[in-house]
Design goal:
With 94 residues, the chain is an all-alpha fold. The chain has five helices and no strands.
């Protein structure tokens, strides 16, 4: 069941819109500009890494940092952690 849920979440990340990302960034008080959100969404759609695997998440965030900035990649990581906590699956990110 865990694998199915992780696949579902990974698919949702690929379907994330700029509007969705800006909503979550405001909700969790993580500053992301509209331009950064657009770059992040574009990168997530192409992402082949598993965000639940620590090494895969690190590679994903590294690619994201090269597209946007290190600070933006950190913000995305914070956002992933906060969303995981909200849904009670933060242990999947360990």
């Amino acid at each position: 069941m865990k694998n199915v849920a992780q696949q579902f979440i990974t698919q949702k990340l690929k379907q994330l819109t700029v509007k969705d990302l800006l909503f979550y960034s405001k909700k969790y008080r993580i500053p992301i500009s509209k331009e950064e959100a657009a770059s992040i969404v574009k990168a997530l759609k192409k992402n082949e890494e598993n965000p639940f695997d620590p090494k895969g998440r690190k590679r994903m965030l590294k690619k994201l940092a090269s597209i946007t900035s290190v600070d933006t990649a950190r913000s995305v990581n914070q956002l992933l952690i906060k969303l995981a906590k909200e849904y009670g699956v933060e242990h999947w990110l360990k």
